[in-house]
Records
---
Amino acid sequence: MKSYAEMDEMSADILKELGNIGTGNAITSLAQMMGIPLDISSPSLHLAQVQEIYTLLEQSQEVETGILVEIKGEITGMFLFFLNESFTNIVLDEILEKRERNILELDDLERSLLSELGNIMCGSYIRALSALMDMDIDVSVPEICVDMGGAILSVPLARIMSKSADILLIENQFQINHHSFSGRILFFPDPECLEPILMKLGIGK
C-alpha cells in the first residue's frame, strides 16, 4: 500500500480504533497531570487534499498552541497536539498559577511545561500503539509553536506533501468538564507505514 487512497473501509476503521486507543491513553495522562476530568470524542479519520484539511479543522485563523512531535522507528510520521487559547490558559492555570497571560508571549517555564505535557501525552499514545502492534516506536523532543492554526499545520502538511498527494488525518477532540475548551490530537502517519501497521494487525496483504 503506497498511498492513503488504497485503503479499504476495514483498514480505515482499524486506524480510527488505533487513534481512539492512543488518544484515550494520552488524555488519561493529561487528566492525571492536571487533576481534573477530561472528555474525549469518538475519533474521526479524514482523507483529503491539503487545502481541504484547513477547512476540516476550521481553525486556521485562530491563535493556537501547537505541540509537534516527530515519530521514528517502525512507524514514522507526526503528531500535533492543538490547544486553543482558552485551553492553553486552563492547562497553565491548573498546573502553575492563575494569572493573566498572553499566550503569544509565554515565558520559559510555561513553554517547558507545555513541552513536557506534549512529551507525556505523546509517550502515552505511542506506548499504547507500540504494545498493541508489537512495534518499536520512538518520538522526538516536542517542539512548541504558538501561532495561527494554519501556520502550525503547515509543518506536518509540508512533510506529507513530499510523499503523497493526499493527507491522512486521524483526529480526536477533547474537552474539560463538558465545557467548550477544546483541544485536538492529530496523527499524520507516513503513507509507507500503513501496510506494516495493517499487517501487524492481521489485515494487510
---
Amino acid sequence: MDLEFFHRLVFYTLYFLFFLSTAVFIERLLYFFFTFPAEKKLIKKELEVTKDEGAELLYVNFSSKLERGKGILMFSITASPLLGLLGTVLGIIDSFKTMAEKGVSDISAVSKGIAFALEATALGIAVALFSLLYYHTLNGLVKRGKTEIKRFILQNLKGRGEGD
C-alpha cells in the first residue's frame, strides 16, 4: 500500500479547506460592507408597512442572512487539525514501514515520513487558526448587524406606539 496517495489527499483536502474558508470570509466581508448597508435601508422601508407581528419575522429573516457561512468556518476549524493529525499518523506509519524495509541505518528514508508528518500537522493547525480568525471576525460583524436590526425594529415600534 502506497501512502503517498493518502499524504497528497490529506494535503489537498487541507488546501481546499483553506481556500473554502478564505472564500467564505471574503464573500461575507463583501456582504457586510456593500450589501448589508443597502439591506438596512430595505429593512427601514419594510418596517413602515409591516405590522408589529411581522417585525419579528423580519428580524429572523435578515438575521439568518447575517449568519451564512459560519457553519463552513466551524467545520474547517474542527476538521483541519484532525486532518493534520491523520497526516501525522500516515507519516509516522510511512517512517516505520521504511525502517522495517531498509533498517534504521537509512536515516534519509526515515526522515521523509517524519517530514510528511510534521508538515501535515503544521498545515492542519495553520488552516484551523486562519479559519478561527475568520470566524471570530465574522461573528463580531454578525453581532453588530443583529444589534442594528434590533435597534431599527425597536425604534420603529416605539415610534408607532407614540403616534397612537
---
Amino acid sequence: MQKRLFIALDMPTAPRAELARLCTGLPGARWTPENQMHLTLCFLGETEGSAFLDLREALADIRAQAFSLGLRGLGFFPPRGTPRVLWAGIEANPALLHLQARVLACVRRLGLPLEQRKFLPHITLARLSEASLPKLQGYLSTYALFSVPAFPMQSFCLYSSLLGRAGATHLVEAEYELGPACSATDPDRNKKSGLRTNTKTAESAGGDERN
C-alpha cells in the first residue's frame, strides 16, 4: 500500500497564531488553515509501503541539533507570471539548511526519487486563484514589515497525506527529536502527533511544497 509522504517542521502554537493573523484581506486567496502550517523539508509523494518503513527507521539515524527559527517577509510563487502561492519567508538559518541536507541525504541513500527543486524555505499562507496583481502588491505592502522573533524548533516529522474531496488529511507517522541524537517518537504516545485536516488540497506551484 502506498503512502503520500513528506518531511516537515511543524510550526509551534505561538508563531502559527502570528501567521494566521495574515490570512485575511486578499480576494482570490484560499488560506491555509492554522493547524496545517508547516515548513516542508522534503516532498516524496507516493511511496511504497516497504520504502515507507525503511524511511521511517532511517530518519531516526539523522544527527542534527535543535535550533531557533525566525520568520521575516512575505512573497509569492512563481516570481514571474501569474501568482499562485503566497508565502511567509524564513530568516537565513544555517542549522535549518544543515538539517534539510541531512534529510535529503537520508532519502537518497534509500534510493527514493526526489524532486529536482532548489530548497526555498517558506511557509505557505494561501493558494491564489484569480488574485489580481495590484491587490496582491497592496497586501504585500501592508505586511511589508512582518516578522516573528526566533522560536525553538526541537523536532521534525514524517507525514503522510491522504487526499479527499474535502482536502488533505495529514497524519504524523513519526516525530524525531533534534539534539545530540535524533530519536523516533511513537505518535500514539506523543501529544504533537495525530490527524490534522486541511480544508484545501495542496497543489504544486513554483518552489512550493506539494503536500
---
Amino acid sequence: MPSPSASSTRLRVRHGIAKTSAAAFTLFQVNGGDWPSVGLPGAGLRGAVLDGVRMREADLTAARPEKASVTGTDLSGAMPHSSRLTGADLRGSDLPALDPLTVEPSGATVGLEQSAVIAGALGLVVA
C-alpha cells in the first residue's frame, strides 16, 4: 500500500483505533478490510480509493474525499460532518449518517437507492 504524503501526516494507532491529524493522503487505496472507529478528521483524501471497506463509526469530520472513489463502503454510524464530497463517487456505499445539510455534496455521484435515503434525510417523500 502506498504511504501517506509527507505533508505533516501523523497516524497513531491506539487500542486498535487509528487517529490522524491534518493528514494529506496521496495515492491512497484500500480494497476491503475492517477499519471500525478509524479517526480521519480533516484528512485530505482527494482522489483516494476506498472500495468495500468497513468503516463503521469512523470520524470523517471535515475530511476532504474530493474526487475520491468510496464505493461499496460501510459508513454506518460514521461522522462525515463538514466533509467535502465534491465529485466523489459514493455508489454502493452505506450512507445512513450522511446529512446533506452538513456536508458539501456538490457533484458527488450516488446510486438510485442512496438518492432516496438522502431525499428522506431532507424531509422529502419519494413516491
